[in-house]
Amino acid sequence: MTKKIETDILIIGSGPAGYSAAIYAARANLNPHLVSGLEPGGQLTITTDVENYPGFGDVIQGPWLMEQMKEQALKVGTKFHHDIVNKVEFDKNPFLAETDSGIEFLSKSIIIATGAQARWLNIESENKFKGFGISACATCDGFFFKDQNIIVVGGGNSAVEEALYLTNFASKVTLVHRRDKLRAEKILQNRLLNHPKIDVIWDHIVEEFIGSDEPLTLKKIKLRNVNNKCEKMIDATGAFIAIGHDPATSLFNNKIKMDNDNYIITKPDSTETNIKGVYAAGDVKDKVFRQAVTAAGMGCMAALEAEKYLAENY
Questions:
Q1: CB crowding 152-191: b at 16 or more within 10 Å, else e
Q2: Could you list the active site residues?
Q3: pLDDT in tens for each of the 314 residues of the chain?
Q4: What is the C-alpha separation between 108 and 275, in angstroms, rounded?
Q5: What secondary structure does DSSP assign to 214-272, as a single string?
Q6: What pTM did the predictor assign?
Q7: How many helices, marked H, and strands, marked E, lie in the chain?
Q8: Among candidates 72, 71, 12, which has minimal Cα distance to 42?
Q9: Cis status, amide bond into 215, omega within 30 of 0
């Protein structure tokens, strides 16, 4: 049986953006409901050490930070639903959102905070070492690889930028690319190819990540030449996968304005989308920074903008 819930504000997605939006919306007495989605807490739930979130002198754990944000949102009055939104309608207000469990939300405003997922290589050994030598975020984790040999996998702007950034920490960075030329902008290519700390291995893909189990530590990477199928082994204690991100926006196809990469477009200096009363915050709209602190800031912005919208229209 369908359960109907009417609310001032519905937040789709959790993580720093969704939880921050919930905290601010609840404190404004907007009675927010939050549907947490497939991965409650977002990408930080698979991040171990976090050193760059303001306010903590010691290293904290990503899952713990998300639990604290959730607890704070609960204490100020957010109603949580461990569910998945499978349908939205933005044609008229109140907006409609339906979930897998049969809840039908009628909401005067909506904040989309569904995030984005890093693309992975999808090989078995990659899953084993995620968080233990393998990362998809150089600005998040580069600091942990001081004076180490590391690799970056990819050939676009993101891969080249991450490789250049990682030279601030690593003793050597090897870029591994499956083709014989880069897709990155020429100016970035020139910087990379002329950097004394960076080597490039062309026409190779990662075959396997190899390391020790106790403690779980990455030590070597097996590569395979895409042309002659020959294998080679390189020493590396860190690997950064930089083959792109996919925003979680399939639910909103043909419902809201997006760019060519399916990131939701918002107005300048705003989280407002092309639909009045619908806002987007965090990695679902941010392809540049992708940090927990920027996502949290956008969640705050979205809640404040929604509060203003509701005050002016209801």
A1: bbbbbbbbbbbbbbbbebbebbbbbbbeeebebeeebbeb
A2: 137, 140-141
A3: 679 999 999 999 999 999 999 999 999 999 999 999 877 777 777 666 788 899 999 989 888 999 999 999 999 999 999 999 999 999 999 999 999 999 999 999 999 999 998 889 999 999 999 989 999 988 889 999 999 999 999 999 889 989 999 999 999 999 999 999 999 889 999 999 999 999 999 999 999 999 999 899 999 999 999 999 999 999 999 999 999 889 999 999 999 999 999 999 999 999 999 999 999 999 999 988 888 999 999 999 999 999 999 999 99
A4: 12
A5: TTEEEEEEEEEETTT--EEEEE-SEEEE-S-EEES-GGGTTTS-B-TTSPBP--TTS-B
A6: 0.79
A7: 7, 19
A8: 12
A9: yes
> How far is residue 169's CA from residue 192's CA, in Å, rounded to a whole number?
15
Measured CA to CA in angstroms, residue 49 lies from 44, 282, 310 at distances of 10, 20, 39
Q: Which DSSP letter does residue 78 get? A: P
Answer whether 279's CB lies under 8 Å from 306's CB: yes
